[in-house]
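If your schedule permits, I should be very grateful for your opinion on a structural question. I have a record of one protein: its chain in single-letter code and its fold written as discrete structure tokens. Would you kindly read the sequence against the tokens and tell me how you understand this chain to fold? Thank you for your consideration; the sequence and its tokens are set out here.


***
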Amino acid sequence: MSTAAPAAEHLAASLPVPGLRVLGQVAPETAAAARAEVLGAVVVSASLVGPAPADLSLIVLDPGFVAEAGGGPGAPTTAVLRPAFERAALTLGDGVLSELVEGDPAGLFVGGVASADGETSVFEISDGAAPFGWLAVRVGAAAPITSFADHGSAYDGRLRRIQDVEMALTVEIGRTRMSVREALSMEPGTVVELDRSAGAPVDVLLNGRRIAIGEVVVVDQDYGVRISRILDAAEARP
């Protein structure tokens, strides 16, 4: 089985469309040709930066679900699809998932099954009646490790290439769920009760992934967060 197959399964299961499943692998040209025949089809891509880098690109034939899942017609496709990309990236190893972009900058759907950068696998995703889209995954070879020092220097060298890339850091004080009726009834003065008590630790998220917990502080009349604990990979979640 392709090492990319679990990524396709996790992405299909995490998309905000019920009943999706992976049918199997197809040639990249098959997916590209089908996309060209459908007006309104979109392509969204991201890269995993880490010891074993990877590129992911998803063709969606009908992105109509984005407005409903994102809360309105202006919802960004990349924001709605990011949680599914995060789940897929978790199966590919350690690393940081880049921002999602529209298009196929890595050329996964035109580069053939293999390239100098690694093997490309394309999986068809179906809603049970018709194709929903295709996921292309190219997994690069991990850097050879001859010693701990060599591994550290090689990994550090790759990280230095992206150390100036800005990422979104978010502090989340709590969440809640509400019906559409409740959301539409909100007005100035409405109090929304969250699922966290006052004084409880807050979550610190980097590009949507929880990486730490902390406490809210005030610094020169501005809010800040004091980091209490950095989470390991098993505790982190999208």
Summary: The CA atoms of residues 167 and 207 lie 6 Å apart. Confidence is low (pLDDT under 50) at residues 112-116. The first strand starts at residue 21 and ends at 26. The first helix runs from residue 5 to 14.
